[in-house]
Request: fold
Amino acid sequence: MSDEQVRLGELRDEIDQIDQKIMELISARAACAQEVAHVKMTANPGQDVFFYRPEREAQVLRRIKEQNPGPLSGEEMARLFREIMSACLALEKPMHIAFLGPIGTFTQAAALKHFGHSVVSVPLPAIDAVFREVESGAAHYGVVPVENSTEGMINHTLDMFMSSPLKICGEVQLRIHHHLLVSPKHGDQEITRIYSHQQSFAQCRQWLDTHRYGIERVTVSSNAEAARRAAEEPGTAAIAGDMAAELYGLQKLANSIEDRPDNTTRFLIIGREEVPASGHDKSSILVSMRNKPGALYQLLEPFHRHGLSLTRIETRPSPSGTWAYVFYIDFEGHMEDEQVRKVLAEVDEEAVELKRLGSYPIGVL
Ligand SMILES: C=C(O[C@@H]1C=C(C(=O)O)C=C[C@H]1O)C(=O)O
Reply:
């Protein structure tokens, strides 16, 4: 045996021993999580106990990122722990997570990034269907897109909150890479039509105008649907992401064709429960103001005075009348915080209506 083979043999023995220890430790952790569930059930007999605690999971992941010694990155280590927690929780009862489908969409990728792979993910055809599935209790949580860094807000999601009783329980961001995809079955056939979702066409507009100018663009209901069509119809291509490409066995003609390299979509987790403070939280509200001079100033001034940082403000037409508006506001802090309570009490006095959509941990992954 060469020196190299001897050394590799030693290292592999060492890895086997470490794996054995990791397995024992993960098993001990899983038993602990089971015990937590047992304690919760014993303390609340006969009640519908929530095992999943988003604020606790955010704290665990934050600590892992902060204390990670390397050489793996903090993000990578947190992703591994995300899956361990997901598997531990599923020992009790796998959660049902409704998402804007079909399978293979970026929303499904966001759902799995946030909850890990040990959940049952349920595709639904529209944003309002995701809300209904969670409202009825058929799903524990739902995942819907809310904004894209290139294209702006997803208005349908914002408008759903005007009438829905659901709370925002979390957020997750996903870097969005689009590819130009074709089926290997169809060989080198000339492409005469490209399918995609309207959002993806918008995020790749410059690339398409430069590299595929004049080819027909056909808007369909999702990227996954675009991929499905490209897999079936010769002479067509799809713009979609990796999940859809894999699902339908498509090949990349061009990789990462989004116009902006930081193209990111933010998704919201919606549920029926309010989330306690995790120590690093964000809150969302909807406010309608009387239509008078200085109304917006009056609305925002208390945030400034109490030093609360706004992360987003968006205006939507009010369902109650022409030229009346509702403001959708995200800010840092939790509704349990003293400062936030004071600000919201002031806003409540001036507003026609203030709806608290929820406080939730700032996305960790
Ligand atoms: C173990 C608990 O329950 C669940 C499992 C967690 C875990 O595996 O770390 C964390 C939070 C909860 O989703 C707990 O409440 O601490």
